[in-house]
Amino acid sequence: MKKIFLILIIFSFINLGILNAQAKAVAIEKNKKIKAPASGVYLGLYMNSTGTLSDVAEFEEYSGKKAALYYRHNWWPNTLNNPQNGSFEATTLAERGIVWAMAWAIPTTTKEETKAYAAKIIEGQEDEYIYTMAKQIKDYQYSLMITPFIEFDNPNWSLEPELYKRYHRHVVDIFNEIGVSNVTWFIYNGYEVGSSNKLPLSYYPGDNYVDWVGSSFYYQDERDNISWKTYNHDIWEGFTNKPIFAPEYGPLVKKEQGQP
Questions:
Q1: Cβ–Cβ < 8 Å for 3, 36
Q2: Which residue in 51, 65, 128, 226 has the fewest CB atoms around it within 10 Å?
Q3: Are the beta carbons of 134 and 175 closer than 8 angstroms?
């Protein structure tokens, strides 16, 4: 059985033990950003770049709730219309009332590679590809959520804060230039229980470039959920009132316990 992680979007810091009862359907409008519900949460699943619609059905059967979001990778230089990582299911998802939350990530595995690739983007060497993607998404019309970077502070591939902000703004500026109105931009950092990272402010590109914020959450004890809630309250609500998003959420499993 494939591993499925819950996605949680938390707009009021409610008790995570009652998430299922608080789950809301997402309203998808053409050429519009995704709006936060007045209360409660959206629930969904995360399947990196290998997920299919069958995973959605499995999640809905397991949770007893309709999926609102589907967090899935789409690596540069794939386009929205690429049959392997693109719209092979995007339209179907939208028609079923599910938003594709896309990790539009540059294909690097080290900090050095990431820095070099981001520099190319900032210098405009990848603009043709970004314009192509922006036009396809504009023509798609349905709402999408996009982050241009997976866990912006991940020690394995993170950029320096100023370089990250320039990279993020460059991508969003091109989308704004051609009038793309159906993208909800989000950013998130990594978090494991016990983390004390307080860096998001230094990475934040500004309210005009971000719609939702948040962090990953991996835990070994369900009681640790409260620490994720407190952590996000402390690091995000201090300087922005954006909705809170947990794109990656799930238990950490010790080796001796085996895989879930």
A1: no
A2: 128
A3: yes
- The answer to whether the CB of 24 falls within 8 A of the CB of 37 is yes
Q: How many structural domains compose the chain? A: 1
- Put residue 76 in one of left, alpha, beta given phi > 0 → left and psi -120 to 50 → alpha: beta
- Whole-prediction pTM: 0.86
What number of helices (H) and strands (E) belong to the chain?
8, 9
Taking a C-beta distance cutoff of 8 angstroms, is the pair 211, 182 a contact?
no
CA distance 102 to 83: 15
CB atoms within 10 A of CB 63: 17
Q: Are 123 and 168 in contact (CB under 8 A)?
A: no
Task: State the CATH number of the domain containing residue 111.
Answer: 3.20.20.80
The C-alpha atoms of residue 119 and residue 166 are separated, in whole angstroms, by 9
Neighbours of 39 (CB within 10 A): 10
Task: Report residue 7 as tokens.
Answer: 């996605």
Please spell the DSSP secondary structure of 97-122, one letter per residue. Answer: T-EEEEE---S--SHHHHHHHHHHHH
The dihedral of CA 191, 195, 199, 200: what is its sign? positive
Amino acid at 220: Q
d(CA 76, CA 126): 10
Q: Residue-wise pLDDT tens for the chain (260 aa)?
A: 333 444 444 333 333 334 555 677 887 889 999 988 888 888 888 876 667 778 888 888 888 888 899 888 888 888 886 645 545 567 888 888 899 999 998 888 899 999 999 999 999 999 999 999 999 999 999 999 999 999 998 888 999 999 999 999 999 999 999 999 999 999 998 865 455 555 788 899 999 999 999 888 777 766 666 566 666 667 787 778 888 888 887 777 654 544 44
